């Protein structure tokens, strides 16, 4: 069970992630790096939606695994897109290298915090 120190620590890391992404946009006066925030905020949604759409009451494992696998695939796609998008923008000379590094690190902190929140505050299932 996670306590108040866990919430404060994860919130601090999340704030640092958002700060890095916002600074990568503001310092270099190019706001394309803010697209990373959208990808990392949207990334857990397919996993959550597909997890709810599958039927957890079935005793057979293979019946609902396609929906869960599709949700994991979309989540992985968004996470990789959050890393690849700043690299693509840098490669096409739309942003500077410092903005790319700050955006990638900030995005990984944001997504890591979202995953940590879901792991620490996940409800236990009773059988």
From TrEMBL:
Keywords: Membrane, Transmembrane, Transmembrane helix. The chain crosses the membrane at residues 7-25, 31-49, 70-89, 95-121. Its main location: membrane. One of its GO terms (biological process) is late endosome to vacuole transport via multivesicular body sorting pathway. It is a multi-pass membrane protein. The keyword Transmembrane applies. One of its GO terms (cellular component) is Vps55/Vps68 complex. It holds the Pfam family Vps55. Coiled coil: none annotated. PANTHER family: LEPTIN RECEPTOR-RELATED (PTHR12050), RH04491P (PTHR12050:SF0). Belongs to the OB-RGRP/VPS55 family. This is Vacuolar protein sorting 55.
